Structures
1.
Amino acid sequence: MTQAKIGIIGGSGLYKMEALKDVEEVTVDTPFGSPSDALIVGTLEGTKVAFLARHGRNHHLSPSELPFRANIYAMKSLGVEYLISASAVGSLQAEAKPLDMVVPDQFIDRTKNRISTFFSEGIVAHIAFGDPVCPKLAGVLADAVDSLNLTDVNLHRGGTYVCMEGPAFSTKAESNLYRSWGATIIGMTNLPEAKLAREAEIAYATLALVTDYDCWHPDHDSVTVDMIIANLHRNATNAQKVIQETVKRLSANPPESEAHSALKYAILTPLDKAPTATKEKLGLILQKYL
Ligand SMILES: CSC[C@H]1O[C@H](OP(=O)(O)O)[C@H](O)[C@@H]1O
Ligand SMILES: Nc1ncnc2[nH]cnc12
């Protein structure tokens, strides 16, 4: 199968990378079902990358329906080692304005209905997740944003992303609760993805693109999809520039990431005693430990 070391998962508003050249559509089947869409493999800045539209290219999958395991497994099967997520988020802090970008370094899990581990059916693993994004990849992403001097865009390095279940947006009480916890932004997708990427030993970082002030801000109406769409287009254009610059920097200087050996001390079940069917199912993820 075609290989690519860098993967990109595009969220709401980012369904395609315009600058990709020599594009090939790759349909991947995984032991965890089909990904959200075909993966688009092409060349960006002279480097092979794999792009996936998280909700499908026609945005037909809600956050609770996303096949997170299949998406990450599909990236792994193409050889992806660095995964960049682009995501629309609401802002929980006045200083993170619509059109701003945040490269979060923490997550809070408020999901209720997601499968966010590959490990079950006789094999138990507990990955370390104190630092849920790869600090080196996040650094490359943030430096790329800085280098572009985008109009009307402020960069926030670090911050806490609350991952809620959705699909309805938060109540004001919830939004204010998250603010009282010191959280910076809110979305519905990134936490399961970050956990699964870590289990798959893929370095993961997020470019969060602010679209709204959720519903807590006294001077702004509560978030609606219209409000989000108004900012998605500019955010998507900016995100593509940032991703292109990030790919250029990553391929020139691919960092060592602790994520690449995340399973080394995580697996509790002796693999020689583990069910063969599960070892086969986990295939590529477990391969180097068998
Ligand atoms: C379009 S508003 C809500 C929707 O947008 C974000 O998606 P993504 O992270 O894929 O950009 C948010 O998490 C919700 O799924
Ligand atoms: N306010 C918000 N809450 C959850 N997800 C979002 N995605 C974009 N804006 C959001």
2.
Amino acid sequence: MPEVLAIDFGDEKASPPAILLDDVVLERGGKAVIDRLSLPLGPKGVTAFMGPNGAGKSLTLRLIAGLIAPTAGRIRFAEGVPLPQQIALVFQKPVLLRRSVRANLDHALKTFGTPRRERPARLADLLALGQLEPLAERPARVLSGGEQQRVAMVRALAANPKYLLLDEPTASLDPQATAAIETLVARAVAAGVRVILVTHDRGQAGRLADDICFLHKGRLLEAAPAARFFQAPKTAEAKAYLAGDLLL
Ligand SMILES: Nc1ncnc2c1ncn2[C@@H]1O[C@H](COP(=O)(O)OP(=O)(O)OP(=O)(O)O)[C@@H](O)[C@H]1O
């Protein structure tokens, strides 16, 4: 069993955590698929969860989002449990309505309670943000994967969320489409949105993340500033993962 290393996020942890995972356990099929996960997440920036398949990254994201409840332990938010619209989620495969891009975004604004008179301007902003104006009247479901993900991203941002949780948002996209999504993430971060990202893409983690949390078999093995993690991973498992070795 590998040793769990101390969490080392450097200076950022001088500020109190916005989200605190406190000894979180999640059992599935009679075993702990998340095993005593304790982690403070600071108020700003991007944290990337990395690790091999089955490490528990997606489940951790779902726990933070409140979509599933831990078997034991707690997830605490400094500002109290967020409202559903304060936590936005984007998955690898976007699920869009069978309507135009414009109608998808308008529906989101309506759902989030944007007053009717404000909606046209907000809609225009969202279309511009995603560079979606030329696609506005197209049925969302016939767009390319990259275009659909741009719609999903700006839809997620429609509610001005505090937290943006991204589960392998560019896993099936080409470099150009990936760059467009990363630009949207960077804009959200600049606007103060706290981003938590699950990715297998080391380049992406290097470009976007301030901190890396490395999970393996449901356990948090490392938590460190991104540069430090990539330059000097401390566990054998993280070293092997970064070297591209098969981790069994
Ligand atoms: N309902 C369930 N019943 C049993 N096991 C489950 C269930 N849901 C998830 N698991 C297991 O929990 C573990 C963690 O799953 P999770 O989806 O979080 O992994 P991940 O790190 O996101 O992997 P990937 O990179 O493949 O997406 C896996 O071994 C998975 O099989």
